[in-house]
Structure formats: structure tokens, C-alpha cells
Amino acid sequence: MNLDNLNKQELQDLLKDLSLYKKLISQVWNRWKEIFSHAKEWKNKFLVEYFPNIEKEFVLEESKKIFEKIFSQKNLKEEEIILVENKKILWWMKIFFNDDMVDMSFLRIQNLIKK
């Protein structure tokens, strides 16, 4: 493609496309690095975000049940599960297994009711 032969509108369209490409590459690249690091180590990612007022022991107990029933991950050890407090989650938790997620928060129910 010779840029000298393009008119102003074609150059503007090309600039928009290149800007979008750059943005997408940066987003995908950041996500790719995270996924690749887990795949390279052959480790699964077990993440639980929960509302801060819930006791950690309860969160661990319930998340193990959910990992077993929904994701078929049995006999998880407590140190394998990453617990993260999240005040934006209204009463309950979100369970992440690699790229999959189960939203068990009150916020999800509230959003469904609004629709």
C-alpha cells in the first residue's frame, strides 16, 4: 500500500483502523501474558472474590464445594485458592476457574431484576 496515493479520507480511515488495532493488541497482549503464564506452568487458577463481611473460613468452604460441583475440581487445598476481598460485590462471591466465572453475588440478582 502506497500512502502517497491515498486521499485525506482514506488516510483518516486508515489511522482509525491502526488506532483500533493498537488498542486491541495491547488489551489482548496483557490478557495473553496472564493466560500463557498459567498454561506454561500447567497450573490452574482458582480465584475467589468475596464481600469483606463474610468470614474467610465460610468462603473457603463454599468455594471448594462450588469448584467441585461446577468445575469438577476435587480435593483442592486452601493454599491453591486465591481469596480477594471486593467491596463492589454485594453479599456473596464470584468464583473464577482459569477463564470461567460463576457470579454468586447479590449484585447479579439485582441486575437481573432491573432488566
Question: What is the element layout, followed by pairings?
Answer:
Elements (H helix, E strand, L loop, with lengths): L7 H34 L4 E5 L5 H16 L9 E5 L7 E5 L2 E4 L2 H9 L1
Parallel strand pairs: 1-2
Antiparallel strand pairs: 1-3, 3-4
Description:
The protein is α+β, with helices and mostly antiparallel strands and 115 residues long. The chain has a domain at 41-114. It has three helices and four strands. It has helices at 8-41, 56-71, 106-114; strands at 46-50, 81-85, 93-97, 100-103. Strands 2-1-3-4 form a four-stranded mixed beta sheet, with helices on one face. Strand 1, helix 2 (56-71) and strand 2 (81-85) form a beta-alpha-beta unit. It is elongated. The mean pLDDT is 82.
* Gyration radius, rounded: 21 Å
Q: Globular, elongated, flat, extended or rod-shaped: what is the shape?
A: elongated
**Would you identify the regions where 5 or more consecutive residues have pLDDT less than 50?**
none
Measured by DSSP, the beta-strand proportion falls in 15-25%
